[in-house]
Specification:
The chain is α/β, with parallel strands linked by helices and 202 residues long. It has one domain: Isochorismatase-like (Rossmann fold), CATH 3.40.50.850. It is built from seven helices and six strands; from the N terminus they run βαβαβαβαβαβαα. Strands 3-2-1-4-5-6 form a six-stranded parallel β-sheet. α5 links the parallel β5 and β6.
Length: 202
């Protein structure tokens, strides 16, 4: 009879994705993240702050992108991102798909990590396009749907459908907490559960 002690290593479930994850924060900046979106601005801010807390707890590196305005300057980051980015460099994205920007691609590939978590606005462009490219290139991509915002319910739904068809996983912050936490007895996991309770508390 097969027992746990005789299972081959590849058959054991991975307890946490934290050690292989990198987080892309896409265009959470003034003039974009504060548009009328599929998620209320206050909720988006709360969810993004929670996501960045999780990234800090589990030492998940960040890639933070912004786009320039018509004057060539990028508007300020969402305050929650500015407070939680832990000194991560800011990349000014000049292509619709971040994966087509040489510096952003180099940062992702140079991390050596293959699990890409994605948060941003708008879901239809800044989230969808790099997620599809990364998934096609072998990354395990997770779009955190409650840390994203779309331009309309209809266009965001189309983007999410295309993402799943392209091999991208759509998930939520609550699910991500469980996947990151792994063993609830560990100190970092307990901190993650505290973030979950903060979210659930409204």
């Amino acid at each position: 009879m097969t027992t746990l002690t005789t299972w081959p290593a590849h058959a054991k479930a991975k307890l946490s994705i934290a050690s292989d994850a990198i987080l892309l924060i896409a265009d959470l900046q003034g003039g974009i993240a504060d548009l009328p979106l599929t998620i209320p601005e206050a909720q988006l801010k709360k969810n993004v702050a929670a996501l960045l807390k999780l990234a800090s707890i589990f030492d998940i590196p960040l890639i933070v992108t912004v786009v320039p305005g018509v004057d060539g300057q990028a508007s300020p980051l969402m305050a929650e991102v500015e407070a939680g980015k832990r000194g991560a460099p800011l990349f000014i994205r000049t292509t619709p798909n971040s994966m087509n920007d040489a510096e952003i691609r180099a940062a992702l590939e140079g991390s050596g990590r293959k699990t890409l978590l994605v948060s941003g606005v708008a879901t239809e462009v800044a989230v969808q396009l790099p997620s599809l490219t990364a998934a096609a290139e072998g990354f395990d991509v997770h779009v955190i749907v409650d840390a994203c915002g779309g331009v309309s319910a209809r266009s965001e739904d189309a983007a999410l459908r295309r993402l799943t068809q392209g091999g991208v996983k759509t998930t939520s912050l609550l699910t991500l907490v469980g996947e990151l936490a792994g063993d609830f007895t560990q100190p970092k996991s307990q901190q993650a559960i505290a973030v979950l309770f903060e979210l659930a508390g409204g």
